[in-house]
């Protein structure tokens, strides 16, 4: 709790109301966990009576734009802890907390002559939590999140791309922040790729120079789905490199219990959860939203087990071209003959025959 108190004092002295709010809420939560509910309630009461805003982000109010399109090349937001819905493996949680701790203790680390440990590279399949981890780090540190969408900043005027990168880093230097370079491979490709133009190679050189000059009081996070494309020199610029893979069966179960089950009108059993294997968190969120829409159109409060299994199938196959395959999928993941007949136009006899065939194979 000493850390929260120090951060509240720092936020107060610098006029950062949002940081004060974040750490005050964290302090109250920790006090309540330790049994000091009276003090925790007093803190929450004070916070409830105050109106906070992101007016402290004035230095980040004027966003950089691409010279050609005149579009903003960054997004800025203040992420609060209660905005984060995250499921991490034990390893990812430990590594993420370790990175945050290194940032919180950067002054002690610097005092021992160790260079700033504030560069994090996240790689892995799309939709598996890289952006969510960046948001979590921003929330935990109380820093504004500045997201550069690199896939949109590459200008048709190649000389402007390096300028756009410089604009982003200059912008981030105005105030301590978490700078997220999303789709990082777009501007960090290997310079020995014969298919790339010389100008794009100069873009990588510019990127490396800006990373080397990045402020020690801020955090740099790069995220990519294609780590194999990155230039070797770029890898060396990050002191922490973490793979963010697709969720395991254990993590899917945790996610389903936390974020899917509350929206359902039926219990989500282990057999139904097997339908989620191989999906990303983004896929699961999409399937859940679609299942909720289906229930809403039926004027029902929660969706059924059939709804969520059907949506995971359609999400992967993008349709139902093979009816037999579709039926085998539904049945093998726990959907009953009655529910399939109720929610589709498939005759009960056809569903029953497929079920018998499936049972015969399993036996």
Short recap of the structure:
With 363 residues, the chain is α/β, with parallel strands linked by helices.
Overall 3D shape: globular
Poorly predicted runs: 51-56
Total beta-strand segments: 6
The termini sit apart by: 58 Å
Helix/strand/pairing class, anyone?
alpha/beta
Order of helices and strands: HHHEHHEHEHHEHEHEHHHHHHH
Strand order of the largest sheet: 1-3-4-5-2-6
Number of helices: 17
Mean pLDDT equals: 86
Largest sheet: 6 strands, mixed
The Cα radius of gyration reads 25 Å
Helix content: 40-55%
Residues in β-strands, percent: 5-15%
Can you walk me through this structure?
- The protein has helices at 2-14, 17-33, 37-48, 90-104, 106-111, 130-141, 150-153, 158-172, 198-212, 232-235, 249-260, 270-273, 281-297, 305-317, 323-332, 337-343, 348-362, and strands spanning 74-77, 119-123, 145-149, 178-182, 219-224, 240-243.
- By secondary structure, it is an alpha/beta fold.
- Strands 1-3-4-5-2-6 form a 6-stranded mixed beta sheet, sandwiched between helices.
- Helix 8 (158-172) packs parallel to helix 9 and helix 11 runs parallel beside helix 13.
- The radius of gyration is 25 Å and the shape is globular.
- Mean pLDDT is 86; it is low at 51-56.
Primary descriptors:
8% strand, alpha/beta, single chain, six-stranded mixed sheet, 6 strands, globular, 363 residues
Sequence-ordered SSE layout with sheet pairings:
Elements: H1 2-14, H2 17-33, H3 37-48, E1 74-77, H4 90-104, H5 106-111, E2 119-123, H6 130-141, E3 145-149, H7 150-153, H8 158-172, E4 178-182, H9 198-212, E5 219-224, H10 232-235, E6 240-243, H11 249-260, H12 270-273, H13 281-297, H14 305-317, H15 323-332, H16 337-343, H17 348-362
Parallel strand pairs: 2-5, 2-6, 3-4, 4-5
Antiparallel strand pairs: 1-3
Helix pairs in contact: 1-2, 2-3, 4-6, 8-9, 11-13, 13-14, 15-17, 16-17
């Amino acid at each position: 709790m000493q850390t929260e108190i120090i951060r509240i004092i720092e936020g107060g002295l610098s006029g950062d109301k949002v940081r004060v709010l974040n750490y005050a809420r964290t302090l109250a939560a920790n006090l309540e966990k330790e049994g000091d509910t009276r003090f925790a309630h007093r803190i929450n009461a004070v916070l409830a009576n105050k109106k906070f805003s992101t007016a402290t982000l004035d230095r980040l109010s004027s966003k950089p734009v691409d010279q050609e399109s005149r579009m903003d090349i960054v997004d800025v937001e203040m992420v609060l802890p209660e905005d984060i819905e995250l499921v991490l493996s034990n390893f990812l949680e430990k590594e993420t907390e370790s990175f945050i701790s290194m940032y919180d203790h950067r002054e002690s680390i610097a005092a021992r002559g160790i260079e700033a440990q504030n560069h994090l590279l996240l790689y892995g399949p799309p939709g598996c939590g890289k952006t969510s981890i960046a948001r979590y780090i921003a929330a935990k540190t109380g820093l504004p999140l500045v997201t550069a969408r690199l896939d949109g900043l590459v200008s048709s005027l190649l000389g402007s791309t390096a300028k756009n990168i410089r604009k982003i880093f200059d912008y981030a230097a105005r105030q301590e922040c978490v700078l997220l370079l999303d789709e990082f491979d777009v501007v960090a490709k290997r310079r020995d790729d014969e298919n790339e133009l010389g100008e794009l190679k100069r873009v990588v050189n510019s990127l490396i120079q800006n990373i080397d000059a990045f402020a020690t009081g801020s955090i740099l996070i790069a995220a990519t789905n294609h780590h194999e494309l990155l230039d070797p020199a770029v890898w060396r610029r990050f002191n922490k490199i973490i793979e963010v893979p697709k969720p395991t069966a254990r993590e899917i179960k945790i996610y389903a219990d936390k974020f899917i089950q509350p929206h359902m009108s039926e219990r989500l059993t282990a057999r139904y959860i097997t339908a989620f294997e191989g999906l990303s968190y983004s896929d699961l969120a999409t399937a859940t939203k679609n299942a909720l829409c289906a229930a809403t159109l039926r004027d029902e409060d929660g969706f059924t087990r059939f709804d969520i299994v059907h949506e995971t199938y359609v999400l992967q196959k993008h349709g139902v071209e093979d009816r037999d395959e579709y039926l085998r999928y539904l049945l093998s993941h726990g959907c009953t003959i009655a529910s399939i007949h109720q929610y589709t136009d498939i005759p009960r006899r056809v569903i029953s025959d497929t079920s018998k065939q499936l049972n015969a194979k399993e036996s």
